[in-house]
Amino acid sequence: SAARIKRVRTERIQRELDKKKIVLVAGFQGINKHDNITTLGRGGSDTSAVAIAAVLHADLCQIYTDVDGVYDKDPRKFVDAVRIPHIGYDDMLQLARQGAQVLHDRCVELAQLYAVPIRVLSSFREGSGTLVTDLPEDSFQN
Fold first, then answer.
1. Residue 26: φ, ψ to 5°
2. How would you classify residue 98: left for phi > 0, otherwise alpha for psi between -120 and 50, otherwise beta?
């Protein structure tokens, strides 16, 4: 969990995207203080996705997970949990730091730093999920 992303090389990714190809990128990788390749630890895949979205200047980073967005409490444990359709970076960071396991705080910090909107969506069912950004939701196009 001490590994960090030092750089993201996007030349090949951009070349393939320019050819209208679908690009699969293995995330979750980092380099520790000894320059050994290792994993980023918990939240590494989401953090990788946001880092790639940031360097590609993507309009949106979609994160697919086992829940269909960010909730006021764990929807797997509470039937009265309410999905939050739109949340700012600071509020999402606070939730992540208090134990919400939808997004890791490093992922949200990176998204905030580079103004990358994130949409949290379910891998298993359709829905609009939760938009994580400081932009007003009605001004966001996706």
1. -75, 115
2. alpha
User: Residues of 129-138 as b/e, b for ≥16 C-beta within 10 angstroms?
Assistant: bbbbbeeeee
What type of residue sits at position 122? S
Count Cα neighbours of 11 within 13 Å in the Cβ-side half-sphere: 1
12: exposed, middle or buried (C-beta count within 10 Å: 0-12, 13-18, 19+)?
exposed
**Phi then psi for 89, rounded to 5 degrees?**
-60, -45
- Say which amino acid occupies 63: I
The string of DSSP codes covering 47-105 is HHHHHHHHHTT-S-EEEEESSSSEESS-TTT-TT--EESEE-HHHHHHHHHTT--SS-H
Q: Against a cut of 0.90, is the pTM above it?
A: no
47-66 pLDDT per residue, tens: 999 999 999 999 999 999 88
Structure tokens at 78: 């509470």
